[in-house]
Design goal:
Helices cover 46% and strands 23% of the residues. By secondary structure, it is of the alpha+beta class.
Length: 119
């Protein structure tokens, strides 16, 4: 069974909300990169919560027949990355999320393209 990217995003968000993830953000990166269609970024209050959130996303995806391409950082708990092909999930502690600032990186690319189009 293959899930559409949008359906997979909803599954990921539900798995994150189940365990009270904070500041969940979805960024549509189609047309900006060929590695994925969507990025979902969420915060966990502690290393234990980050790990639990990532594990829950993996479990819910596998229940729906979605096999992850890979995952990183599950041991440390500061940042976990789950690659579900069409959707890449980043779960971070707030300080780590602020440091890497993926929102600005990916949304900034969209804004700079829009500004160039207007010029």
């Amino acid at each position: 069974m293959t899930m559409q990217a949008e359906q997979l995003v909803q599954l990921v968000i539900a798995a994150l909300e189940d365990l009270k993830a904070q500041d969940i953000l979805t960024i549509d990166v189609r047309g900006k990169t060929s590695i994925t269609d969507f990025m979902v970024i969420a915060s966990g209050a502690s290393s234990r919560q980050v790990k639990a959130l990532a594990d829950n996303v993996l479990e819910k995806a596998k229940e729906q027949g979605v096999r992850p391409i890979g995952s990183e950082g599950l041991e440390g708990g500061e940042w976990a990355l789950i690659d579900l092909s069409n959707v890449v999930v980043h779960v971070m502690q707030p300080a780590t999320r602020q440091f890497y600032d993926l929102e600005r990186l990916w949304q900034g690319a969209e804004q700079s393209r829009a500004q160039q189009a207007q010029e």
